Amino acid sequence: MSLYPLLLPGVRQREFWSWAFYDFANSSYTTVVSTAVFNAYFVATVAQGKPWATLAWTAAVSVAAAVVMVLGPLAGAAADARGRKKPFLAASTLACVLGTLGLMAVGPGDVALAMVFIILSAIGFGLGEGLIAAWLPLIARPTALGRLSGYGWSLGYGGGLAALALCLGYVQGAQMRGMTAAQFVPGCMLITALFFAIAALPSLLVLREHNSPEAKAARANPSTLPLVEQAFGRLQRTWREGAHLTDLRRLLVAITGYQAGVAVVVALAAVYAQQAMGFDTADTLKLVLAVNVTAAIGAFGFGWVQDAIGHRRALMLSLWLWLVMVLLAYFATTRPVFWVAANLAGIAMGASQSAGRAIIGYMAPPDRTAEYFGLWSLAVRLATIIGPICYGLATWVFTGNHRLAMLGTGLFFVFGLIVVRGVDVERGRRVAMTGKD
Question: Rounded to two decimals, what is the model's pTM?
């Protein structure tokens, strides 16, 4: 299948695949560390099942998200100012890989050490996620943003699937030899770090900058101002000129809302499966493997749907799927029903996350893509603070009742639906491109 009709002139197909391969690489971190293995290991083994264990995990994730909220827009603005995104992408990738390797040293009772390396790795992941997304509107035609974002996101779930399969094989072998979680989880962290580092190489080596004419001029004639000062200056300009970007602001608010619910599922799915449904580590890994398959299907399929029916309608449809999933998870008392809920979450996750990225790309001016995706990263990271912390507080208030906490998560998707209804995507693109209503 030729991708050239979907790509902007001058963009090679291998560059698209090298861009998409970063989704393949970084999904290993979210799948193994954030979703399937280390989060449950932290609660059950590192924090030894204390009443505050889930809250401690969500606190670490939230601190990292707060840092990314500050650094994400700055890094994006700095990359746009210099016309060089790849050095920033390389640095963020290295931080995530080193933080993941650091988790190998974490054992029972090492709560503070675990939180340090979780924060470092999550900061690296968050910054890299925003930076790699900035290439999307620079390589894809406006009419193909949904499909190409979906292709990348679905390939990403394939990466999570591959990394998790490697870990599952390792864990099952370790359990047959009588090893405990404290003995085999460090091996999973090594597998994940190496997977991320190796799979990210195509993006770092093959992908070109594809700067706009304005960014090329900035690169040819670099400013004499310090980089941090340049970055702050660009953000101040966006703030001053952004009063008329009503639809962009509304979209970012909606993303913050529904991504808070998504963040709960990503960060706490394994915890919920073990605490509410009685899954062990091997059961959880098998579940997350299946969910990655359905998430890949959701991202791929909804990319076509998004370009066919429109960005806003596709996003709203994915949020309705999320609400159905929450209700199924709440009422599930048997494993088959929970498996249905989990796989529905996979479809909704792939659809909503890919759709949000594509809409931002559609509304971003070519000379400020990294900056706009920095704002997208800010919204997503704010969501990862709000969602998991609310879930952690709910489990504390309801004395460990994960079902009630999950039911409350549905409110985030209701909020997202209400706000997204008021977004006019075409008007938002027109205003962003021309500065006029």
Answer: 0.79
